[in-house]
Amino acid sequence: MRTVSIRELRNVGGKVVDRVLAGESLLVTRSGRPVAELRPVRRPGLSAEQLLERWRDLPQVDPAGVRDDLDALLDSRL
User: Fold this and answer.
1) Are 36 and 12 within 8 A, CB to CB?
2) What averages of pLDDT result for each successive group of 10 residues across the chain (78 residues)?
3) Does the pTM exceed 0.90?
4) Tell me, what's the pLDDT at 75?
5) Distances (CA, A) of 12 to 7, 27, 44, 46, 58
6) Could you tell me the sign of the dihedral formed by the alpha carbons of 61, 63, 64, 65, in that order?
7) Which of 34, 46, 62, 69 can pair with 50 through a Cys bridge, CB separation 3.0 to 4.6 Å?
8) What pLDDT is recorded for position 27?
9) Is there a contact between 55 and 32 (Cβ–Cβ < 8 Å)?
10) In this structure, are residues 30 and 7 in contact, taking their beta carbons and an 8 Å threshold?
11) Are 16 and 39 contacting, i.e. CB atoms less than 8 angstroms apart?
12) H/E element holding 65?
């Protein structure tokens, strides 16, 4: 985990937060000692109802067509 000093956090806090928003976790240090951790907040999960609604909107898949497409792409000798 990368570190960031309290001084850096104070001086360029917006850039530090941008790094966290991009998915990076940071260890905040004071005088070289770890004092805090900054990490992205997890998004709340979807409810069962929301998942089912998304599932209903998925396009139909033809298994035979998928297999034909894969056979056309892949070398059968492998």
Assistant:
1) no
2) 95 97 96 96 91 92 92 83
3) no
4) 82
5) 8, 15, 29, 34, 44
6) positive
7) 46
8) 97
9) no
10) no
11) no
12) helix 63-73
- CATH class entry, domain 2-38: alpha beta
Q: In what order do the strands lie in the sheet with 26-30?
A: 2-5, 26-30, 33-38
Bridge partner residues of 76 (DSSP): none
> What b/e sequence results for 42-76 when a residue is b if at least 16 CB atoms lie within 10 Å of its CB, and e otherwise?
eeeeeeeeeeeeeeeeeeeeeeeeeeeeeeeeeee
Amino acid identity for residue 69 in this structure: D
3-state SS, residue 31:
coil
Give me the pLDDT at residue 50, please.
93
Domains in the chain: boundaries: 2-38
Q: Are strands 33-38 and 2-5 parallel, antiparallel or unpaired?
A: unpaired
